[in-house]
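Thread: quick sanity check before group meeting

JM: Hey all, I'm pulling together slides for Thursday and realized we never actually wrote out the predicted structure for the chain we discussed last week. Dropping the sequence here so it's in one place. If anyone has concerns about the input, flag it before I start.
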Amino acid sequence: MSLKTRLAEDRVLVAPGVYDALTASLAADAGFEALYLSGAAIAYTRLGRPDIGLVSMSEVAEVVALVRDRVATPLVVDADNGYGNALNVERTVRLFERAGASAIQLEDQSYPKRCGHLQDKSLIAADEMAGKIRAALDARLSPETLIVARTDAVAVEGLERALDRARLYAEAGADVLFVEAPRSAGQLAAVTAALGPVRPLVANMVEGGDTPLAAASDLGALGFRLVIFPGGIVRALARTARDYYASLARAGTNAPFAERMFDFTELNALIGTPEMLARGEAYAGRQEDAA
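JM (edit): ok, ran it. Output follows.
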């Protein structure tokens, strides 16, 4: 089932954040129907830096291709603000779609952008963003590749202006709407009341962010169709990694941490090493044996 078809169904879809092929494979194995490739998570893990526009288009495209080579699960890709103007957006959409993106998310921040839950963001004009959306639609090869339009206007211009921007982006042809960082349960409800009949809506759950945390089922009942958890995996792994390194530095051995780790055999089983070695052996037979 395509992501477009799935989002047309009257039930919520949860997309956990991933940042590489390993996390994507783990999320797919857990049974999720879609994944969210987070630009913030790529910045955190590849650069060890915050989400402030440091990650490039080519770096994200490389990750998209590596994830798609590993899993077939529909993939929503965070393309920040398209890395420039409408012409940059065209190139971004072509590159990400070829690499394997099922949906490409574009936001209306200026450049360099900031994480949606950081303060002091700035926006481009709404009309300029609408032009970027039209450029994205013109650049995609397949109508099954969705364009997600995100507005960060709640923190800059207020909720009503954010809703106006989202309506304009829908008129420009965006397939999915994403009003970033509503600041209360009342604002979440206002988003779905205003925009739910217009397009499928995204809700973003960020631990410690501006939006109150809610279960996907409750957000679905409110009217959201896609709920993403972009950076949760990095926050979980970063805490585990900090504890691991502290334990190793203290003990000089991994023994105290062993119950919280996969051993060598377990990890190889998880990533499919035995199966891949067996498949390689199947291609290694002599030609006369195959004849």
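AS: nice. The mean pLDDT is 94. Residues 7 and 140 are 19 Å apart (CA to CA).
JM: adding both to the slides.
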